[in-house]
């Protein structure tokens, strides 16, 4: 068996060496894929330590499936909680989705202008920044805009700012009693935050609150469990107000014990920090020259033959680059065990693992 994410992972290890207090601190990712297409020994991933994982692949190659396999495995591991931002409704079979509503005060005031589509250096953007700083509801911020300001901001500017805040209110995502990331981290079992009906700006607001809230909770040393934050369509998250919080998870998340898993069809659209700071890259079929070049440019030199020549071309197969053990493996990702994307598990698929 090969264990990813630990120093001894490149060598065969016994199952007894992967246990913490009698529980299996690993998850089953799949099996080795030989060059002749046959399957070899099992491949597992460490869940005892925090990890930063990037999963890439063009549409239909198994990227989202692999994300589900990782979420299922973390859900069954001891001492960790997967928290999944479900924007496609693919993870409802893992747990009953929780409401995606968040507290407005959990977003920093400086993020609000960009969130509602304003330049924060503009008069209307600066006014929104000011209005949300001392209130706990969007309605309160809108009401504040109706008052004459000390700077003598005109009615037209206040009207523009109010229009943008009213649009954000219609997203139906802000609630003073919204979700609390600390409570989600300490909750046993998987957490699915259902965002399938949200606009991209609203989903980005939820992503930022989750990422920053979980990080702060763990940094304070108050967490009873360690979170694994799971994001699909990560290029959209990095393109919105969630980016600072996600960057922090990739660059500083290891110290407080926060793991992050990001998946995308467009690795070229990810910031360099995400790909270079990931200790595990799971690459399905990628054909765009921009995407391949981005991955090849940020991966280490220990890859035999280079990443470009080792990318798989078969659905469900991935090249897994493990920086911890400085090794790369071609892996057949196992079948999922929970319903997903309109499909249900098949006994025949599971028996072939």
**Termini Cα gap:** 14 Å
Radius of gyration: 22 Å
Low-confidence stretches: 11-22, 344-353
The CATH homologous superfamily of the largest domain is called P-loop containing nucleotide triphosphate hydrolases
Q: Helix-strand pattern, N to C?
A: EEEEEEHEHHHHHEHEHHEHEHHEEH
Major sheet size, sense and barrel closure? 11 strands, mixed
Q: How many E strands?
A: 13
Going by CATH, the architecture of the largest domain would be 3-Layer(aba) Sandwich
**Which percent band covers the strand fraction?**
15-25%
Mean pLDDT: 87
Summing up helix and strand content along with how strands pair, one would put the structural category as: alpha/beta
Work out the helicity level. Answer: 25-40%
Number of H- or I-type helical stretches? 13
What is the global morphology? elongated
Number of domains: 2
Return the CATH topology of the largest domain: Rossmann fold
Strand order of the largest sheet: 1-5-4-13-12-11-6-10-9-7-8
CATH class of the largest domain: Alpha Beta
Written description of the protein model:
This protein is of the alpha/beta class and 353 residues long. The protein folds into two domains: 2-100 and 179-351, Rossmann fold (3-Layer(aba) Sandwich), CATH 3.40.50.300; 104-169, no CATH class. 33% of the residues lie in helices and 19% in strands. The protein has helices at residues 63-76, 112-115, 123-132, 138-145, 155-169, 181-185, 200-219, 234-238, 243-252, 272-277, 289-298, 307-310, 347-351, and strands at 2-4, 19-20, 23-24, 26-33, 39-46, 52-56, 80-86, 191-194, 226-231, 259-264, 280-283, 317-322, 327-333. A hairpin with a 5-residue loop joins strand 4 and strand 5. Residues 11-22 and 344-353 have low confidence and may be disordered.
